[in-house]
Amino acid sequence: MKADALLNAYIDLNLLVLAGALLWLAARGLLRRTSFGTAYGPQLRLLNGMTVLLAATPLLVLALNASGLGHPPTLSDVLVSQYLQGNVQMSASQFETLIGLREDLVRDLSRGYSLWSQGAAFLLITGAAGSALLLGTAILRLRSALASAYLWKRIGRVDLLLSDNTAVAYSTRGLWRRYVVLPTSLLDDPRDLRLTLAHELQHFRQRDVEIAFLMECLRPLLFWNPAFYLWRRDMRMVREFACDQALSTSRGFDLRAYCECLIRATERARRTPVFLSSRSPSVALLERREIHCAPLLARRIIAVTEQRPNGHPGLLWSGVAAAIACAVVATAFLIQRPGDWSHDRIMLSTIVNLERMAHRSAAQTSLSAFNGGFVTAAN
Fold first, then answer.
1. Residues 259 and 130 grouped into a single domain
2. d(C-alpha 136, C-alpha 172), whole Å
3. Which band of pLDDT confidence, cut at 50, 70 and 90, is reported for residue 216?
4. Fewer Cβ within 10 Å of end Cβ, the chain: N or C?
């Protein structure tokens, strides 16, 4: 694949993540005005679905374009059509330069002739390589932590491990098996052990570990994109809220004991350094921010005690998910590179050429008038 094609796919992915973050912020703002703002389970499923869709949409667009089913109009095509209809007040040359900024950027970066393009390419490659290296280091540390723990029990495909090197329980997985790592200190408190284990097993039911793996794999491609970190932060927050709420609906759940368990886990984690990196593809009982920031832990306790809306409005959430999915797919097609020269683009190119000829003719007329006036004065 050519360098310009790779750059365009890279730009498309970053633009899609930005568009997805804006859509999520808009949906979250609307939900907070209703009683469904505290329904974190459906919100998590929406976020997980959007994450998979954002990662897969560039490949989907490439497959549709390669299948020969036609090329839908891009944003550039729409802007050209609006210009030809007289809805954009701008000279043809300036407008052509504006809509060609992306093509110029991709061409400069792929060829690397200018100094700024070489610097930008160096920063992108260095940042991606550094993020990939840190991710690899985090995975190696995770493997080392799993190897140093010892097997306690097995529940189907889930291995329960005990470790002396961690103060916070966490869950992760390999290709075939799943792992829950528990601090050995929990053996002294059977109630906290039961609640912590239920919390980590709920993460498996929500597919949180798989989504965490996907997010960390996307980091080297999105390391410079602020929308990625906003997306990741909100997903982690909603993930824990949804997990806590799901446990609170189970029979015999003691809400007060669970909140006290979170507080005691925080105290233990503050006394013992957290072993795993924040880049580790795992899901912990407590995030690093919650351990060192009491207001975040308080928000989590408030969320688990909030009243949820009555009923199961599956139709509403299906409609929201369908609307966001359609918006993401439409955005993916709009930000694509324009195809072959269309009738509108030929018309725009003709207008640009006529405008340049008019400017050249006017300049020559002015120069002839100036030279003629000078000769007359000399006579």
1. yes
2. 15
3. very high
4. C
Of 199, 213, 191, 248, which is closest to residue 180 (Cα–Cα)? 199
**In terms of residue numbers, what domain contains 51?**
1-111+318-364
> Which whole-number Å values give the CA distances from 351 to 83, 120, 244, 337, 338, in the listed order?
11, 34, 62, 22, 19
What's CA 6's distance to the chain center, in Å? Answer: 19
Claim to verify: residue 136 and residue 250 sit in the same structural domain: yes
Closest CA to 335 of 327, 344, 345, 324: 327
Beta bridge partners of 179: 159, 172
Q: Could you tell me which residues come within 8 angstroms of residue 366 by beta carbon, excluding any fewer than 6 positions away?
A: none
pLDDT tens digits, one per residue of 252-285: 888 899 999 999 888 888 877 666 677 788 888 8
**Residue 171: beta bridge partners?**
180, 283
Same structural domain, 34 and 162: no
Q: Can you tell me which residue has the tokens 């003629």?
A: 372
Query: Which pLDDT tens digit goes with each residue over 68-118?
Result: 655 677 878 888 888 888 778 788 788 778 877 788 788 888 777 788 888
Query: Is 60 inside any structural domain?
Result: yes
